[in-house]
Amino acid sequence: MLDISFGSFPALNDGAPQAVALICHGKGTSEDATFKALDEATAGALGRAVAFKGFKGDAGQTLVLTAPAASLSQVVLVGCAAKDGSAATAVAVENAGGTAARTLDGVENAVLALTSDVAGFAAEAASGARLVRYDFDLYRTKKSSDHASLKALTVATSDVPAAESRWVALDAVSRGVFLTRDLISEPANILYPETFTARIEALREIGLEVEVLDQAAMQELGFGALLGVAQGSANAPRTVIVRHNGGGEDAPLAFIGKGVTFDSGGISIKPAAGMDEMKTDMGGAATVIGLMSALARRKALVNVIGVVGLVENMVSGRAQRPGDIVTSYSGQTIEVLNTDAEGRLVLADVLAYTKDRFKPKLMVDLATLTGAIVVSLGTENAGLFSNDDALASGLFEAGKQVGEGLWRMPMGEAYNRQIDSDIADMKNIGGRPGSAILAAEFLKRFVGDATWAHLDIAGTTWKTTASPTAPKGATGFGVRLLNQFVQSHEVRA
Questions:
Q1: Of 62, 245, 393, 409, which is most buried with the most CB atoms under 10 A?
Q2: pLDDT for the residue 26
Q3: Would you call 244 helix, strand, or coil by DSSP?
Q4: Residue ranges covered by each domain of the chain
Q5: Contact 292, 285 (CB under 8 A)
Q6: What is the pTM of this model?
Q7: Beta pairing, strands 405-408 & 426-427
Q8: Is 342 annotated among the ligand-binding residues?
């Protein structure tokens, strides 16, 4: 994990070479004091390069000078200005911080500075740098020796106390994102319901309360939908309840995660191509656990409950069959027409149980639920479904503030009727057209009158290309979004 510190901009002399990145906003870059110091240290080479390359400080622009002076091994300029000339945003600066940290690869220590017009976002720049330097390398026996990996970054700012104060929360959130990425990246032979539970239980040391429902407890409660999914696997299921108590006697916010640690599809088996990525089908649960970690570490002033249903969906002689009928915790019966539509069965029991037992102020579930949402929205936005306009708006705005996009999808009775069954209360699929919506309608039947939203994160949990703040692979999408959302519900003195 990249070590972050804050301090004053260093003197650029003939001592040990330094690598420096400067985040710039707009056309005033050449008049900035830090830019002038770098230009002087490079005997005007930086200014000439800016003029020659046409660097204007726009978002996505970079300029790199290698060994421009005896005291400088590398100088990197990174732009963050919007094309419309509007003021800098936290998201833009965070992205620029990530781009800077990635570009600085090849050095172990570096300085990250900001021009005066974005200096107030020093902590956000540090956050972007931290997030992009994630590397899941537990199972590589040979590390790359081509370049030294960036290990420490000093963020130069004129107001160190303010940056350090802001960094406390962002540091906690980045650690939550890394936990989520770690969980999603683990292979299914390492991370299955029992071992996932053990990792959650380890979070007691940061102040979270953890309660585990084993298979016997779930059978007694009547978790017929979840247990039906799990019955084909040799790995027993778990439901894990995590509590953060920071809001006195207030009703909690509840976040519920789908935790299918591997999804073969069951008897409705998936194609072999790409099945390896089904280790990521616990992305919703991983996001909930990463969020709970972040809230505990930053001591959020709110009561929050995270509930995750952990199962493995496998093929065996004991596996659930297409056509089986199960009775859910809520008492409603479900005709299982497709065993690969299993995530909604897991969530059905966990949602109804959470509502009944904890009576939360609101519930938000997260799940890598449908391929249909990827067809609809690609990998840039997650699908948002809700029975409450205010909740949907709050989640949408929170995502906008941290750069994790949501797009609200329609729901309605015409969709809901498509999952009625001829021989049970409902069926778990209703056809291919609008199938992400039908999945949401299925979940809605288990939340009653609770204020509820469903985030289908199938397209945003795992990406095959890097972004300014994440390498390819597990993104940790949702942790920052929900942390931002939770802030609006915190108790203030």
A1: 409
A2: 80
A3: strand
A4: 3-138+149-157, 172-487
A5: no
A6: 0.96
A7: unpaired
A8: yes
In angstroms, the CA 256 to CA 82 distance is 36
Q: What are the backbone angles phi and psi of residue 21, rounded to the nearest 5°?
A: -115, 140
- Domain 172-487 is classified in which CATH homologous superfamily? Zn peptidases (3.40.630.10)
Residue 241: beta bridge partners? 211, 307
What kind of architecture, by CATH, is found in domain 3-138+149-157? Answer: 3-Layer(aba) Sandwich (3.40)
Annotated binding residue 281: yes
Dump pLDDT digits (tens) for 312-337.
999 999 999 999 999 999 999 999 99
**Whole-angstrom distance, CA of residue 276 vs CA of residue 234:** 19
Taking only the tens place, the pLDDT of each residue in 449-466 is: 999 999 999 999 999 999
Instruction: State yes or no: 143 annotated in a binding site.
Output: no
* CA distances, 31 to each of 12, 86, 116, 148, 214 (Å): 18, 19, 10, 33, 64
From residue 207, give the alpha-carbon distance in Å to each of 150, 198, 271, 293, 439.
31, 15, 42, 9, 35
- Residue showing tokens 């992205």: 95
Is 83 annotated to bind a ligand? Reply is no
Q: Summarize pLDDT for 69-92 with one digit per residue, the tens.
A: 988 999 999 999 998 888 889 999
Q: Please work out, in degrees rounded to the nearest 5, the angle formed at the alpha carbon of residue 217 by the alpha carbons of 359 and 231.
A: 110
Identify residue 21 by its one-letter amino acid code: A
DSSP lists the bridge partners of residue 79 as: 24
